[in-house]
């Protein structure tokens, strides 16, 4: 990160709006996990005013991809769909204080994800994906999963709460069912601890350190909250 702007460093070390967005009605993706960098942009757009009320992102890649996803969410929140359409990769790069040519793939990827999300909202054909240049990853480069930032609320609260033993059994059952989803992505998930409203899990394989795993963690969190009838938060942890 030597030579990076203050804005890039700030958005990398303090990413805004990371994680899955419940209730998103516009989701766009760009890039490729196999190429080493990918971005998912999730928007909640008011259908009456067409104003983007909330935006979140999940990214896989180096620090430019994380910074670009973070600043993009700030750029689009509060804008109308028509205004958001005008944002370009150059606008994203400018908001980050400028990027060298070899890092411009990340803001371009952000613009592609935005265009795809807006097309989903308006019902238009998805834009043709642009080729992604494979990313050469340094052995020192690390990817940190973005956990769901707040607990999931259940669809319906239980009139008669489950006993602690029944809750533990339900969490274990759901986690076992969801392992197939994680394994399909080339990884796995293991229950480490369940206490109060916190479910701690350990990710392995391709899921380990992959920010795209956050969406699956969000789905796991929501299923557990609905089953237990109370707010639950799933947190990825390392084995001691």
UniProtKB/TrEMBL annotation:
Gene Ontology molecular function: iron ion binding; iron-sulfur cluster binding
Domain called NIF system FeS cluster assembly NifU C-terminal: residue spans: 171-235
Keywords: Nitrogen fixation
Source species of the chain: Rhodobacter ferrooxidans
Superkingdom field: Bacteria
Coiled coil regions in record: none
Gene3D superfamilies named in the record: 3.90.1010.10, Fe-S cluster assembly (FSCA)
Protein name, entry field: Nitrogen fixation protein NifU
One of the protein's GO biological processes: iron-sulfur cluster assembly
InterPro entries with a match to the protein in the record: FSCA_dom_sf, NIF_FeS_clus_asmbl_NifU_C, NIF_FeS_clus_asmbl_NifU_N
NIF system FeS cluster assembly NifU N-terminal domain residues: 5-123
